[in-house]
Amino acid sequence: MNFEPPTAEHMHTRCCIVGGGPAGMMLGFLLARAGVEVVVLEKHKDFLRDFRGDTIHPSTLEVIYELGLLDEFLQQPHQEVRQVEAHFGDHVITLADFSHLPSHCQFLAFMPQWDFLNFIATHARRLPCFHLRMEAEAVELLWEKERVTGIKARIPNGELHVHASLVVGADGRASTVRDCAQLKVLDLGAPIDVLWFRLSKKSNDPEQSFGHVGTRQFMVLLDRGDYWQCAYVIEKGTFQEKRESGIAAFHNEIARCTPFFHDRTGELKSWDDVKLLTVKVDRLESWARDGLLCIGDCAHAMSPIGGVGINLAIQDAVAAARLLAERLRTNNFNTSDLREVQHRRELPTRLTQRLQIFLHQHFLTPIFHATEQPDPPWPIRLIGRLPLLRRIPARMIGLGFRPEHIV
User: Fold this and answer.
1) The pTM is what?
2) CA dist 159 to 135, 136, 139, 235, 362, Å?
3) SS3 category, 217
4) Are 288 and 147 in contact (CB under 8 A)?
5) For strand 108-110 and strand 79-81, is the pairing parallel, antiparallel, or unpaired?
6) Is the dihedral of CA 208, 79, 352, 394 positive or negative?
7) Can you list the positions of beta strands (E) in 55-172?
8) Which residues does the chain have with pLDDT short of 50?
């Protein structure tokens, strides 16, 4: 029996989406655009969190083009990258060239995720069927026998009960929804974690600086205009050891991996300036049960390799909206309809995770165990010598294994 305090606020809607990240916001926007009443619950009061994926791939940009919003979207603060490079000591190798992709945007757009989410939210709020509740943290599913019928959320002045024909879990890799639904998670393992921090950008820095490989080191740099967002990859479970060695030792590590940072590592005053991202690669055995669907990281947590997580999540949302919008609008759907989304999206998810695990095992793990500056592996050397081959990783990263479309 669901406990219902007398002060609880109640809402009734056709679809309640838990999580205002890329998957949740895009799905809410697309459903409302199709005439489906939808409520999106976001536990924070705004979208301003530093350490979130901000790589917008051509597959996502194509969706925004199909929505008729691309020109306005590209007016938001962003950087465009048409080639991806890796630095192996003094060797610089181009790994991917997006200029030949069959899409309207032949580049990666690096945009802070809060700008992306604010953009989608601004357009979604103009739709009468869309409702966004900030500071609403889902804490429990509502049930009627074996069917999920809504969400109980914690809000600043008490509780919110959202009663819905469909609940969509889009609340990330630490999902409350999937835990409450007791959905089985298949853990595929990840040998890495990532340390996130920012360092200032100077006028004489490289114009583009992406992957840096050193002796037992790997770091990715994202250009945020006046600063670098840094992702320093470490072996899983070694963060505490690094903390015990002291922040000065970490300064030296950074400078050794990326020498042009040698004059500014002191900007990291303490470990409070470094955030740990615990990397997971997993997926649900079943993404749906009666009254409930999971998408995005809630259904399949991805490694940060390739920056594909946000884009796979958005592809899930596009597929779900296309498959379910009309059925939701008429309230004529069942669990088999929800499983169609998994059937559509599971193959690209599996292939992407398989590729990430391969790169973990055959690229990152050897770097961590190298005793000297590693040479580029032979496939990377081959890509560097034959420009035509750069189209292959560009296609896999930029469009994925099954790009989705609005219509």
Assistant:
1) 0.92
2) 11, 9, 10, 41, 49
3) strand
4) no
5) antiparallel
6) negative
7) 55-56, 79-81, 83-88, 91-97, 108-110, 130-134, 137-144, 147-155, 158-169
8) none
